[in-house]
Amino acid sequence: MKLTATTSFESQIATAAAGNQITSIGDVSALAAYLVDGYWQYTSRDARAFDVSSDNVINVNVARLTPAGKELARAALDAWEDVTGLRFVETTYANAEITFDDDDSGAYSNSVISGSTILSSHVNVSTNWLRTSGTGFDSYSYQTYIHEIGHALGLGHAGPYNGDAVWGDDNQFDNDSWQTTVMSYFAQDENPNTDASYAYLITPMAADIIAMRDLYGSLATNVSPRAGNTTYGDNTNLGRGYDDPDVAYTVIDGGGTDTFNFSSATDDQVVNLQQRGVSSTYGLTGNIVIAPGTVIENALGGSGDDLLFGNGARNRLFGKGGDDTLNGQGNHDRLSGGSGADSLFGKAGKDVLLGNDGRDNLVGGTGNDSLLGGTGSDTLRGNGGDDVFTGGGGNDRIYGGSGDDQANYAGKASRYTFTELSNGNVRVEDSLNKLGVDVLIDVETVKIGTTVFDIGDLL
Q1: Where in the chain is the domain with CATH 3.40.390.10?
Q2: Where are the alpha helices (DSSP H) in 121-175?
Q3: CA-CA distance, 145 to 132, in Å (whole number)?
Q4: Catalytic one of 10, 71, 97, 148
Q5: Does the domain spanning 231-458 belong to CATH 2.150.10?
Q6: Tens of pLDDT along 220-232?
Q7: Contact 438, 373 (CB under 8 A)
Q8: Taking a C-beta distance cutoff of 8 angstroms, is the pair 12, 32 a contact?
Q9: Alpha helices, DSSP H, located in 154-281
C-alpha cells in the first residue's frame, strides 16, 4: 500500500487511506468526555479526581511490587506526568494516595472517593500477569499499568463495558480503540473504522490527554515536558520504549530541537511533523500522534519510499534511501532526498533542497531558495523568489520561474558551451562531460567559478 498523510488529534482522528484521501473516524472530545463522566454514569458512580490544588503532588507507594513491576509502574507514572503536569512522589507509607500491589489475581484499580474527590486509589497488576504478558516497555503489561493508573487518576473505560467487550455490541463510539485511548478494550485492528495497526501503547493517547485537561484543568493544559533536545525512534534519549518499532504513542514535547529518527526502517513510512499529525513508521500504520502545542523540528526516513511533512518550524528533513517525497512548510527548511528518485517541495521561506543521488524533482516555493540536484538527471524548479540552482551531475532541466534566478557551474567559462534553442531556452554543455547537458528555462544569470554573467552574454 502506498501510504498517504494523516492529520488530526482533538476534533478528529484520521488514518491513512487509499489514494490521496484522508478519512476521519470520529470526534475525540466526545470520547474524552465519556472517560471523565459517561462511564461513571453508566456504572451509577460519581466522576472523580484527586484534589491537587495545593501542590500538584500525588504520593505513591510501589514498595510491594517486584523489581520488574516497579520498573513498569514508575515508567507508567512518568508517562502520566508527561501529559498531566502532576508529580508522583514515592513514599513507603501504607496510606499513600496511590498504592500498588501484585498479590491478587488479574489487573484492576479501585478508589475511595468523597463526593467527586479521590481520597486514595489502589492498583493491582499480578505477578502472573507480568509472566504472561511480558515485562518490557513493548509489552501488554506496561500498557496495563498505564491503563490502571488512568483509572486511579479518575478515568473510566471508553465505553459501557468492564471485564470484556465485543466490537459491535459493547462500543458506543466509532473511534473507540487503542489508537485514541489507552482506556479502550479494543485494539486498533479490532475497530473496522480505522486503518491503524495493532500495537501496544507506551503513552496515554489523544482522548486520555483531553480527558486529563477536563479533570485537572490548567495544570494539564499547560504541561510542557522535555525542554531539551529529544530524539524519538532510533537512538532515542528517552528510553521507555521510544526506540521500539512495534509500539504506538502520542508525543508531547515542550522545547529544544527535536528529531523523529526512523532511519533503520525498511518499509514505506509517513512522517508527519505537523501538530495533530499522525505518522506511520516501522511498517505500522497510524502509530504515532503529535499533540497540539508540540513542535518537532527534524525528521529522518529510512530505506523505503517515505513521505515526510514539515511544519511551521525551521525543519531539516532527510529522506535517506528509497524514492521519497519531502514537503517543507512556512519556514527556512532544509530538505535532503538521499539516494533514490526523490521529490522535494519547498514552500515559503528560504529553503535549501538537496536531491543527492538519483533522478530527483526539486520544487522551490515563494522564497529565495537554493536547489542542488546532485548526481542524477534532475528537474529543478524555482517558482517564486530569487533562486540559486546547482544542477550537479546528469542532464538537468532548470526552471527559474519568477524572480532573478541564477545557475551555478564549477570551473572556467571556457569549459562550457551555451546555445540558445528555438524556444528561447538555453542548453549548457560541459566539454569535460562531467556535468552532463543542462537546459535552462527562465534563468537570468549564470555563475561560473566566482564570476557572474548575464545569460545573454554567454550566447
Answers
A1: 30-222
A2: 127-133, 140-153
A3: 14
A4: 148
A5: yes
A6: 666 778 889 999 9
A7: no
A8: no
A9: 206-216, 218-221
Q: How far apart are CA 57 and CA 51, in angstroms?
A: 9
Are 395 and 378 contacting, i.e. CB atoms less than 8 angstroms apart? no
Assess contact for 27 and 12: CB atoms under 8 A.
yes
276 within 8 A of 9, measured Cβ to Cβ = yes
Tens of pLDDT, residue by residue over 134-193, are 999 999 999 999 999 999 999 999 999 999 999 999 999 999 999 999 999 999 999 999
pLDDT tens-digit map of 338-391: 999 999 999 999 999 999 999 999 999 999 999 999 999 999 999 999 999 999
- Report how far residue 159's alpha carbon sits from residue 168's, in angstroms, rounded to the nearest whole number: 12
| Sheet containing 379-381, strands listed edge to edge, beginning at the edge strand earlier in sequence | 270-272, 307-309, 325-327, 343-345, 361-363, 379-381, 397-399, 437-441, 426-430, 416-420
How far is Cα of residue 374 from the mean position of the Cα atoms in its chain?
29
Three-state secondary structure of 109-132? EEEEEECCEEEEEEEEECHHHHHH
CA distances from 270 to 8, 138, 187, 328 (A): 14, 21, 21, 14
Q: Distance (Å, rounded) from C-alpha 317 to C-alpha 334?
A: 6
Q: What is the CATH number of domain 30-222?
A: 3.40.390.10
148 part of the active site: yes
| Separation of alpha carbons 233 and 300, rounded Å | 10
How many helices (H) does the chain have, and how many strands (E)? 7, 34
**CATH 2.150.10 placement within the chain:** 231-458
What pLDDT band is residue 217 in, cutting at 50, 70 and 90? confident
Query: 210 by DSSP, 3-state: which?
Result: helix
What's this model's pTM, rounded to 2 decimal places? 0.92
